[in-house]
Amino acid sequence: MVIVAFLGAAGIMFGKAKVSAADLACYQPDIVDGDTFRCDGQRVRLVGIDAPEMPGHCRPGRRCVNGDPHAAKDYLSSITRTRVECASEGTDKYGRTLGRCKADEVDLSCAMLEAGHAERRYGFIMCW
């Protein structure tokens, strides 16, 4: 099992990748890109990572992640072809739910990092 540490505003929270009480759950979410999807009618942004933006989505002046956005989106789609559960970490400035999410006991943020489809950003996340 993956052990995860996340440094949020309240400090370091340690826990297993297993989400004990899902705030949000769905089956095969609609993938927007490598770090965002729609689940049960809500847009969810994976916490602690940033993935390449889809073509035309990187605003001028913003540091966007290098890489293949289509490969990142396809990989996230491939690992979420089952039930996805998320524990909410609040919302971002765009109104998306910031989620600590898993599918088949796999932490999605960590899986995207390990596969090379995202980088650590917007907080601190450790994956073992």
Automatic annotation (TrEMBL):
Highest taxon in the source lineage: Bacteria
Any one Pfam family match given in the protein's UniProt record, by short name: SNase
Residue stretches making up the TNase-like domain: 43-119
Protein name (Swiss-Prot/TrEMBL): Thermonuclease family protein
Lineage: Bacteria, Pseudomonadati, Pseudomonadota, Alphaproteobacteria, Rhodobacterales
